Amino acid sequence: MDADYGIPRELSDLQKLRSQYQPELPPCLQGTTVRVELRDATTAADPSGEHTIKRFFPHTYGQPLAHFLRATAKVPDAQIITEHPVIRVGVLFCGRQSPGGHNVLWGLHDALKVHNPNNTLLGFLGGSEGLFAQKTLEITNDVLATYKNQGGYDMLGRTKDQIRTTEQVNAAMAACKALKLDGLVIIGGVTSNTDAAQLAEKFAEAKCPTKVVGVPVTLNGDLKNQFVEANVGFDTICKVNSQLISNMCTDALSAEKYYYFIRLMGRKASHVALECTLQSHPNMVILGEEVAASKLTLFDITKQICDAVQARAEHDKNHGVILLPEGLIESIPEVYALLQEIHCLLRQGVSADKISSQLSPWASALFEFLPYFIRKQLLLHPESDDSAQLSQIETEKLIAHLVETEMNKRLKEGTYKGKKFNAICHFFGYQARGSLPSKFDCDYAYVLGHVCYHILAAGLNGYMATVTNLKNPVNKWHCGAAPISAMMTVKRYGRGPGKASIGVPALHPATVDLKGKSYELLSQNATKFLLDDVYRNPGPLQFDGPGADAKAVTLCVEDQDYMGRIKKLQEYLDKVRTIVKPGCSQDVLKAALSAMASVTDILSVISSPSSVNTPF
């Protein structure tokens, strides 16, 4: 099987054309000199978790942010690296495939070879299992030739296994030592980058010379924080799904007799559903975050959709499109509680056919109420993180069934005057994962690959490659690196039995911010989307011409570039130091003291633990 990795692909004419596309580099990554500015030490976003994070990561917590600078930048304290000794770097895919992943390899390879042609890049075959077994493929330009700007992870293969146990960490360390690796690059999402941080800490503790770097690549788009604006793959996933959704919208409008219930990717967060809604304008979307915040029950959701169907019928519209994230089922309080009881019994070895009789009375009543096909799916063994097998639970069919039952009841009672309710269900879960990546994902991934080399050249360990100001053209992107430990939070409590992650620092999925600008945009348009059929079809992925440079709506409406603002603040502080020196006038000194006193008072209040919202 290993022989199949890295073999040349058979490319279509479009794939050949895409393989010739050369992504652009921001000015700070051009040339053979690495210019890095390391400033103040980082801290945890939630001060209440700082002590715990510092205890778990004594060697890698509190490291400074890194900014990579263009040649024209005038920064006196910048580190200028012109000598590039030969290095060996290993790289692996972790987690589910995400469009653009191959371009991270390409960008890293090009950066290695530009700075020293004798550098070596080794890809681990089959993800973490390949790392443990030391199965590698040397990545060369010939190997990359048919994978540039292509989808999938098939050049190296992937895994969703964790690198967490003592045995796994030791196996990873042994591999890095045996292969004499100077760097290890882990490509993945929330879990994979948490593992990268823990590996970096263990390597530092053991004085292993290998530096560990993480790359934010996940189709769910939930690895977001003050340092990370977007994830590789999210742009492509949303564009491909938005076209499919728009096709369904057009079909519904043409036939005027079907309601399409479409389930989308999004386990812990509903970013894909939100972005696809803003791109394609379906009639309705139910976000898991809304359900959790309002504690909506299964019956609340059913009523909400039925009321919408009835309102549309009053406008002589008996069709529609409704989006649901796959994680919705776990956001419904009573269903989540039922799942926890089921999972507890499964862990105790109770067979699936005996579980119903051992549930608590209320859980048993809910279980028996649900359709048989859903009962069967809820009995599947949970994932390694205790979550349900969400891709296997047909939430869209459950909701459609409940809505149809209620609409038939209303029709019989005479409270609903529309046509008979007809539902058609779809799950868009895998159709977009292997897509050709969008132009944005091609550029973003390639740039992140280059950033990884810069991080290793600067001798940094336990960092994630970051690019900010992404909504602007590539030549205005800001490249840098942030310690992964600075992105971590500590859960104080958790739902469900025996949660091993409680009290342990980790990266946690960022959920949709119900106070953010993206959700506000959705709220402003919700009524219009529901009643007016303002369906919008962005069309298939565009690589040239109109639409080629379009970026995610949620990326463009949010006010981000945290790294850029940190740098701007540092510039202001430098100006203050320049103006307020011993010997300056009393008036200048008094004005500075007054202003600083006010600023520090305000910042102390804002940054106190009671003022910080801790994600759970």
Q: How is the secondary structure organized here?
A:
Elements: H1 13-19, E1 34-41, H2 50-56, E2 64-68, E3 79-81, E4 88-93, H3 101-115, E5 120-124, H4 128-133, E6 136-138, H5 141-144, H6 166-178, E7 183-188, H7 190-205, E8 211-216, H8 234-255, E9 259-264, H9 271-280, E10 284-285, H10 288-294, H11 298-313, E11 320-325, H12 328-331, H13 333-347, H14 352-358, H15 361-369, H16 372-378, H17 395-413, E12 423-428, H18 439-457, E13 463-468, E14 478-483, E15 489-490, E16 505-506, H19 517-532, H20 553-557, H21 562-579, H22 586-606
Parallel strand pairs: 4-5, 4-7, 7-8, 8-13, 9-11, 9-12, 10-11
Antiparallel strand pairs: 1-2, 1-3, 2-14, 5-6, 13-14, 15-16
Subcellular location: Cytoplasm
Domain Phosphofructokinase: 88-454
Pfam families: PFK
Using brief descriptors, characterize the structure shown.
single chain; 616 residues; alpha/beta; Rossmann fold; 3 domains; ten-stranded mixed β-sheet; four-stranded parallel β-sheet; 22 helices; 16 strands; globular; disordered C terminus; PfpB_PPi_PFK; kinase; ATP binding
Care to describe what's here?
- Belongs to the phosphofructokinase type A (PFKA) family. PPi-dependent PFK group II subfamily. Clade 'Long' sub-subfamily.
- This is Pyrophosphate--fructose 6-phosphate 1-phosphotransferase subunit alpha.
- InterPro entries: PfpB_PPi_PFK, Phosphofructokinase_dom, PKF_sf.
- It is found in: Cytoplasm.
- Regulatory subunit of pyrophosphate--fructose 6-phosphate 1-phosphotransferase.
- The chain is of the alpha/beta class and 616 residues long.
- It folds into 3 domains: 13-233 and 437-487, Rossmann fold, CATH 3.40.50; 234-434 and 511-557, Phosphofructokinase domain (Rossmann fold), CATH 3.40.50; 561-596.
- Helix content is 43%, strand content 13%.
- It has 22 helices and 16 strands.
- The chain has helices spanning 13-19, 50-56, 101-115, 128-133, 141-144, 166-178, 190-205, 234-255, 271-280, 288-294, 298-313, 328-331, 333-347, 352-358, 361-369, 372-378, 395-413, 439-457, 517-532, 553-557, 562-579, 586-606, and strands at residues 34-41, 64-68, 79-81, 88-93, 120-124, 136-138, 183-188, 211-216, 259-264, 284-285, 320-325, 423-428, 463-468, 478-483, 489-490, 505-506.
- A 10-stranded mixed beta sheet has the order 3-1-2-14-13-8-7-4-5-6, with helices on both faces. It has a 4-stranded parallel beta sheet with strand order 10-11-9-12, with helices on both faces. A two-stranded antiparallel sheet has the order 15-16.
- The protein starts with 12 loop residues before the first helix and ends in a 10-residue tail after the last helix.
